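job 3f2a | input accepted
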Amino acid sequence: MRAIDYSPLYRSTVGFDRLFSLLDNMTPPDNGGQTYPPYNIERTADDAYRISMAVAGFTEDELNIEAKQNTLTVTGEKSESSEGEDKKVLFRGIAGRSFERRFQLADHVEVREASLENGLLHIDLVREIPEAMKPRKIAIGNGSAKQIEGKKAS
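job 3f2a | predicted structure (154 res):
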């Protein structure tokens, strides 16, 4: 059960639909939310971030990363290998199930690179604000007002 109902805010605000949708998506569903694979999000610089996901047992070919409209989607699909057909698994503690994990990205956040090392998938993100949207300093004039000369009405 969700604790907060945002529907009255949808009716009384203009232009904040995306914000309320993000808040809606942040609350976990009744089933406790998705927990596999575990991940970390860290800030590596002022405008740089890194998502690290524990994907032990997956190869680069079995992972797919897609960025589309402020959403980063990471999917993993384990391919059935024929090399272990003669082995009988007595206990399976390493999860090898397929997964899909979605991350909502802020405006102007882009994926720079992704790497897979030691069972961790690292996705590096950078926020690049366009030059037109960056704050700029406005010079203040010296305060002398100029009179516009013209003909007087007679």
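job 3f2a | Residues 1-33 form one domain.
job 3f2a | closed
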